[in-house]
Amino acid sequence: MPDKSAIYADNAATSFPKPRQVLDAVAAVLGSMSLSPGRSAHRFSLESSRLIFDTREALAEFFNCPDSSRIAFTCNVTEALNVGIFGLLGETLHPGDHVITTALEHNAVMRPLRHLEKTAGIGISILPVSGEGEVMVSELPRLMRDNTRLIVVNHVSNVTGAVADLEAIGRQKGEAFLLVDAAQSAGVFPIDVVRMNIDMLAFTGHKSLLGPTGSGGFYLRPGFGLRPLKMGGTGSNSETEIQPDFMPDCYEAGTPNTLGIAGLGAGLNFVTGTGLAVIRAHEQRLCRLFLDGLAQIKGVTVFGPPADRERAAVISLKVSGKSESEVAQRLDRDYHIMVRAGLHCAPAAHRAMGTFAEGTVRFSFGFFNTEADVTACLAALEIISGK
Amino acid sequence: MWSPIQQTPTCVVILFSIHFVLKAEKLLKANGISHDVIPVPREISSDCGMAVEFPCLAKERVLELLSSAGLRIAGLYSREGRDSFQAISPEELAAGVVN
After folding, report:
1. A39-60: per-residue pLDDT in tens?
2. Which of A83, A94, B43, B87, by CA, is between 20 and 30 Å from A202?
3. Do A56 and A71 contact (CB within 8 A), yes or no?
4. Residues in chain B within 8 Å Cβ distance of A250
């Protein structure tokens, strides 16, 4: 049983709690049907295929994708980003080509890109961030080159909570392939792949889409191909030993995470049923309350956009004279408040914000946090910062 | 197993994967066309996938729906008997000479 007195403020890592219907969906699938979609012709297999189909269709509608077959499931956003970055090599991206990314990227983007820099000689330019931790999209034209083939952008920073202006980037991307990391934004901020001119959208199920860990995927614009990272059984074209060349099968070798996809479908259903605007407004209210309160606490420095800017409820801070791990440990031990301290797998972002190598203490609120949670976090920080 | 809709001559459409079979099922359902999702008959293909069976009378409408949704057809057959199928060639389809 969860600790009722605990306050969970680590939703940027994994959202908690999950809606009841997510738990029910996972349990129902595990208890009532086979988990081998697309593999056999019996009714269990067909039922699980339908469940995956329905989730795919719902995701396509949610992100305004023109064709649901262009959505493939992966085990998380890291896998989706890896399929994108490594899969483009030899297709859209060639050795020696140029890539633009931002100073706020997670290692799920930075590590694959740095690997290609070393092994395939791609050039990387970094869009800088402002003092308030927002990507400076105005610098994009200056960085564009004739051989810029790929732009990779984090929609919402998992360190500063800043929101990148995807529409502006989509307008200025030219012929480059736009890959968006929607790890923190999907389920809170509206995403329209058509309006934003996105070529590939990578998302995860276990954060604001409120699904279980092990679920995620990507949308790929029609007309683009990626070299699959894995090949194997797809339940289709079984008479041939060649990997299918059509989506979604070409990127979904092996039995999928049917349980995770069922939970993701239920989470998405909760999000659309509640309304994205309602979720965003709630999280913004909590974020503002927290930022306003922090401004009153001496010795606390916030790294990220101010409360009046569009931002996510992901707040990085430092307490003067205290290490990040000490603050996080005291919050957990003395106040049952769970946060995350350190670099949040985004060393580039901390370098840009001047908080490398010790990092920050990160609070991230979700739809199930309350104003009372925020007030309790502020009260605890006030005591910790004063002693 | 004989399905209820086989009271009337039926056609079987083969698509490239289960996703497209279910997309076709959704389209036919939304348009009130009776149909069954069936295992691909062994007589047609060794593939282990599923196919969609529907009354041949609705063939033109079905093809139009699939085409407007961008679904590529891997094969189309008319059922001649319990285990017997006749391929409908692309030329025949284009000329509209079948049925």
Report:
1. 777 778 888 999 999 999 999 9
2. A94
3. yes
4. none
